[in-house]
Structures are given as structure tokens and as C-alpha cells.
Design goal:
about 35% helix, globular, Dihydrodipicolinate Reductase, domain 2, disordered N terminus, nine-stranded mixed beta sheet
């Protein structure tokens, strides 16, 4: 992990000071993910969850029951200004991410915000600039990039010639009220694709359907074209009774499968493939023959770890060491820009949309190959 350039002396002093005592955390939103953030940070010696904020009294009562030493409040400003709070975790609905993150950054707090960073690239750019000006960490919760299985797939992909890849992320709900199924589910796979390929798509084409008649897309089919002609496809759905969380990368020599719902063989590698070579003495111009490869199916051993805990620990590490986050605001902003292009394509009945990356400063910092 590379150290951020241009860190001022005050930031270095802050890091040394924080090494002597736990980093104070405020968790905003205590739904399914929020309460898990409380649990994870509460288990870390370098962190102390000081306050939890949620407008629902029933959720605060649950926090009181499970974590009696943590202050609870329905007032965001009270949580933000509580003495000792150095960092804020925002685990609320997507439409609130920009406003809450902006207020936290203006207050001088480091921020971990759940995906997506924002629901517009313009807002994401504003948050990125705020974090830079304040010399503050802004980490986006693309949790799957902290999954040991996805990291292992990356190791294989880096050694392969990729033909194409596809992902399925389906289930029967839960149905959200703030965004559609595409915005709820596809950011995971856009982030995974960008990470595995080490690049961003040039074109997207997408269609969606409102099969449940709830005024927003419940189903989406997304195609992404990456530099070098690599094609990715993503299928997401809230209306499919078969729950899937799968990414497949088809390469010249291997087919690599990540199945997050298989606890025993989360990654499987099919040592099979096909490649094309020209004939030594072609009968006509452009004549080729196909070389088929058929080998074993393997499932590599993976370290036992919780992705959310990996991500949260990385957040603390970057705060305390002044380092650049693996899933920083630039990476999160790139995903939001792809999502905006998907929206544009859906509105145009699947027409291809070109993404001009020169229009947006994603502040590329390079993705690290491992966590610290």
C-alpha cells in the first residue's frame, strides 16, 4: 500500500497521536449492515464505537441491549460533534450518502460510506474534493473487494488472457425504496470487474424491467465493453427466487468461478480452454485451427476472514498511518459514473453509451494488491 503524497506535518502528528489511543467511531444507520459495523469495530482494539445514530427507536433499543456502553441518539449533529469522534461510518440509504458524508467531511471527520458513494457523479466529485481539501480519508464500502475469494480470482486473472466475464446477483428481495435493483446490486459487480481487469469500461448497454410494478426497475441486464475488446455482462434481480452471488471469468486457458454462497469451494478453477492459432500451411488467407485444453478442476485454499472486518480494519489502518485507501473516493466515483451511464442506456431502451473518462477526475491512486 503506497503512502499518500503531499501529507502535511499535522496529519503525521495526528497519526502518531492516534496510535496511543483507539480511534473514536460514530456509526450512522443501524440496519443490517450498520449493526454489523458496530459489532466489527467493537471487536477491534484500535477502535472504540462511541455513538450510534438512527431515526428508528427500535433499532437504538437493539443497540442498547447488545452494546450497553455505546451512546445512542436520533440526532446526527449530536453524533457528529460528540467528543472523541474521529471517524464516521455511514450505513444509510443511498440517497442520503452525499448529504451525510458532506457534513461529516466538513466537520473534519474521516468517512467510511457504504456503496454507492453517491447517486450522481457530480456529487461524488464534490465529496472527493472535500476529502482532499481536508486531508481526510473517504473510503467507499465496496466490501467484495475485501473478500479473500475475489482477491484469489484476481491472482489467477492477472496470469491469464481474458476473453469475457459475467456476473449474476439475484434473489427474492429485499426490495428497497430508495433505489432500483440495478443501483442496489450492480455496483458490487462493476467494482469487481474493474478490479479484476484493472481498467474501466468504455461503453455500457443496459435494459431493465419493472416486473413487480413498484415504479422502479426490479431486473437489469447490463453489458460493459472494456479496453481490448473484453466484454462483461451483469444480471441483477430482486424477483428471482434463486439466490445467486456469482462471478465467472472465461480465459484462454481457464474458467475461474467465484461463488460467494459456496462456503466450501468459493473459488473453482477449471483448467480448460480454447485458443486459436494459424495453420502452418493455410489453405486460404486467415485459416485457423482451434487448440482445446482439458485439465483438472481445482479449488484453492482461502484464508478464513470476514470481508466487512477486513474493510473496517483497513479503514482504521489508513486513518492511523495516513495511507491511501484501497477503495478510495476515486474508485467509488468511477463506479458511480458507470452507473450513471447504465441509467442513460436503460432510459434509451438499451442504446450503447460511451463513457468519456477525461470528463471526470477519478484521481487514480492505483489499486493495491493486498491489504495491510
Amino acid at each position: 500500500m503506497s503512502t499518500a503524497a503531499g501529507r502535511n506535518p499535522d496529519r503525521q502528528a495526528l497519526s502518531v497521536a492516534e496510535d496511543r489511543e483507539p480511534t473514536g467511531i460514530a456509526v450512522i444507520g443501524c440496519g443490517y449492515w450498520g449493526i454489523n459495523y458496530v459489532r466489527v469495530f467493537n471487536e477491534m482494539p484500535d477502535a472504540k464505537v462511541l455513538v450510534v445514530c438512527d431515526p428508528r427507536q427500535s433499532r437504538l433499543d437493539e443497540i442498547r441491549r447488545r452494546f450497553p456502553d455505546i451512546v445512542v441518539t436520533t440526532d446526527f449533529n449530536e453524533a457528529l460533534t460528540m467528543e472523541g469522534v474521529n471517524a464516521v461510518v455511514i450505513s444509510t440509504n443511498a440517497r442520503t450518502h452525499f448529504d451525510l458524508s458532506k457534513r461529516a467531511l466538513i466537520a473534519g471527520k474521516h468517512v467510511l460510506v457504504e456503496k454507492p458513494l453517491t447517486t450522481s457523479a457530480e456529487d461524488g466529485e464534490k465529496l472527493l474534493r472535500l476529502s482532499e481539501r481536508g486531508n481526510l480519508l473517504l473510503l467507499v464500502g465496496h466490501t467484495f473487494l475485501y473478500n479473500a475469494g475475489v482477491r484469489k480470482v484476481k491472482e489467477y486473472v492477472d496470469e491469464q488472457h481474458v476473453y469475457y466475464l459475467y456476473a449474476r446477483r439475484t434473489s427474492l428481495g429485499p426490495i428497497r425504496r430508495d433505489v432500483n435493483a440495478i443501483w442496489d446490486l450492480a455496483p458490487h459487480d462493476v467494482a469487481i470487474f474493474n478490479f479484476l481487469l484493472g481498467r474501466k469500461p468504455d461503453f455500457v448497454s443496459a435494459v431493465g424491467a419493472k416486473v413487480l410494478h413498484n415504479h422502479r426497475e426490479d431486473v437489469g441486464f447490463i453489458s460493459l465493453t472494456y479496453p481490448g475488446g473484453i466484454v462483461g455482462h451483469i444480471h441483477v434481480s430482486w424477483a428471482d427466487p434463486n439466490k445467486t452471488r456469482e462471478v465467472v471469468v472465461v480465459c484462454r486457458d481457464q474458467r475461474i468461478v467465484f461463488n460467494d454462497l459456496d462456503p466450501l469451494e468459493r473459488v473453482r478453477v477449471f483448467n480448460k480452454g480454447v485458443k486459436v492459432e494459424p495453420l502452418e500451411e493455410p489453405v486460404s488467407f486467415g485459416e485457423y485451427h482451434f487448440l482445446l485444453r482439458d485439465g483438472d478442476i481445482t479449488s484453492p485454499a482461502l484464508p478464513v476472514s470476514e470481508p466487512l472486518k477486513n474493510q473496517s480494519g483497513h479503514f482504521l489502518h489508513c486513518i492511523r498511518r495516513g495511507e491511501i485507501a484501497f477503495t478510495d473516493a476515486g474508485q467509488g466515483l468511477a463506479v458511480v459514473r458507470v452507473m450513471e451511464a447504465i441509467d442513460e442506456s436503460v432510459a434509451s431502451d438499451g442504446a450503447p453509451v460511451h463513457i468519456d473518462w477525461s470528463e471526470i477526475d477519478t484521481r487514480e491512486t492505483g489499486l493495491a494488491n493486498s491489504l495491510r
